């Protein structure tokens, strides 16, 4: 990989595969437009992956399946994305990353259209498999693009913007899709996702520069990342935090309704508030990791675990439930940026490989979290998923605390 700069703010040393970055440095506006287009892509990915969370009840009723079974709309694409994240970069070799992202967005367009038109539950799940391929492949490449699109000193800010699409999806995508599904029809919500994917495709084609893979991802380099302690800890912490979060958040609609006594019609607006808090948390975390990476990740794990564990105790009223939901969103909003930054700092010479592994684990954890939550919801009271979620997230904090003396991750 050709080095783009010797230093990235407070010890962030990175490399990139793009030899033309110095030419783009003379046009800062163009590379920030490119970063924004990628953020638009992450917005779509998270909206597509999580929209069924707000549509479990109408889809389940329309297709005659339980809420636990409807949760497979989240589980299936997440597990597929976990496989696609390392598999797509491996299979495409030296393919220009710009063309790859455009092709994956084309697949997302078709998959969401198929979801909207699916006549039954099996075909809907089949369409969600294609969504998973697009999510995994796109996110694996997008997660490592900040070091290729902007000068090294701007990578933390660019990473925060790219992952700001995650919070924006919670603010706009999922709540608006949920409201569309409630006011019109869940099929219209999926159709709108298809149109959005087409808009992202056009934007990427228009503003992304060529992104040749000078050093393609290989199996040996990919497997070699597991010898890196920082990568191992980042992957394990990601698994525990994300699995814990989604085991509970996948079923936030019934939690708000049945535990906090909140009218189902207010779920969409409350998810909007969750997402606003998440955007704030994302940029707060971006500022914090530039100074204290380890302390920031540890604080996020501790605060998130405590918040979720408090819900069965302090979230049994409307006011308590809403307050804890906002705090939950604020803390979880910093997860993606902080953990992606952890991976960049842990593997500065292999950012794309480390990012592919991280995206694989992140998406696998979403699927496993939804699956575990569904099993608990069908077998135990709702409080059970909150205890499970809080315990897993606090375990992640212990894992991160264990590498407190690792100077490279401070």
Task: Briefly say what this structure is.
The two termini are 25 Å apart.
CATH structural class: Mainly Alpha
Shape: globular
Domains counted in the coordinates: how many? 1
Q: Describe the biggest sheet?
A: none
Task: Give a written overview of the molecule.
It contains 18 helices and no strands. With 410 residues, the chain is mainly alpha-helical. The protein has one domain (21-409): Growth Hormone, Chain: A (Up-down Bundle). It is globular, with a radius of gyration of 20 Å.
List the helices and strands and how they pair.
Elements lengths: L20 H4 L3 H36 L3 H4 L1 H21 L4 H21 L3 H22 L3 H4 L5 H29 L2 H22 L11 H6 L4 H21 L2 H8 L7 H23 L3 H22 L3 H15 L2 H12 L4 H29 L3 H19 L9
Helix pairs in contact: 2-4, 2-6, 2-8, 2-9, 4-6, 4-17, 5-6, 5-9, 6-17, 8-9, 8-13, 8-16, 11-16, 11-17, 11-18, 13-15, 13-16, 14-15, 14-16, 14-18, 16-17
What brief labels describe this structure?
410 residues, mainly alpha, Growth Hormone, Chain: A, globular
């Amino acid at each position: 990989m050709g080095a783009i700069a010797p230093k990235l703010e407070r010890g962030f040393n990175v490399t990139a595969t793009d030899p033309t970055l110095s030419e783009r440095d003379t046009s800062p506006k163009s590379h920030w437009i490119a970063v924004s287009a990628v953020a638009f892509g992450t917005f779509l990915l998270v909206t597509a992956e999580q929209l069924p969370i707000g549509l479990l009840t109408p889809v389940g009723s329309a297709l005659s399946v339980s809420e636990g079974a409807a949760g497979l709309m989240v589980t299936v694409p997440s597990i597929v994305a976990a496989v696609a994240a390392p598999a797509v970069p491996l299979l495409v070799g030296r393919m220009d990353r710009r063309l790859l992202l455009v092709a994956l967005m084309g697949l997302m367009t078709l998959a969401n259209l198929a979801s909207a038109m699916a006549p039954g539950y099996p075909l809907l799940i089949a369409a969600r498999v294609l969504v998973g391929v697009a999510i995994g492949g796109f996110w694996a490449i997008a997660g490592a693009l900040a070091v290729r699109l902007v000068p090294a000193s701007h990578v933390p800010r660019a990473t925060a913007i790219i992952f700001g699409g995650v919070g924006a999806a919670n603010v706009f995508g999922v709540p608006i899709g949920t409201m569309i599904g409630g006011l019109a029809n869940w099929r219209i919500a999926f159709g709108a996702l298809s149109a959005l994917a087409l808009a992202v495709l056009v934007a990427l084609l228009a503003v992304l520069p060529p992104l040749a893979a000078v050093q393609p991802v290989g199996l040996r380099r990919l497997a070699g990342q597991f010898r890196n302690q920082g990568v191992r800890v980042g992957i394990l912490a990601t698994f525990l935090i994300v699995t814990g979060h989604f085991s509970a958040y996948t079923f936030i609609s019934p939690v708000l309704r049945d535990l906090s006594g909140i009218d189902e019609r207010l779920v969409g607006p409350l998810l909007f508030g969750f997402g606003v808090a998440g955007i704030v948390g994302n940029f707060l975390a971006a500022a914090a990791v530039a100074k204290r990476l380890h302390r920031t990740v540890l604080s996020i794990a501790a605060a998130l675990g405590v918040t979720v564990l408090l819900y069965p105790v302090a979230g049994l009223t409307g006011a308590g439930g809403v307050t804890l939901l906002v705090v939950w969103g604020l803390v979880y909003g910093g997860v993606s940026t902080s953990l992606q930054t952890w991976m960049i700092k842990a593997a500065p010479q292999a950012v794309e490989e480390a990012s592919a592994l991280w995206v694989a684990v992140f998406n696998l954890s979403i699927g496993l979290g939804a699956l575990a939550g569904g099993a608990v919801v069908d077998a135990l009271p709702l409080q059970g998923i909150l205890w499970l979620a809080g315990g897993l997230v606090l375990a992640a904090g212990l894992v991160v605390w264990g590498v407190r003396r690792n100077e490279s991750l401070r």
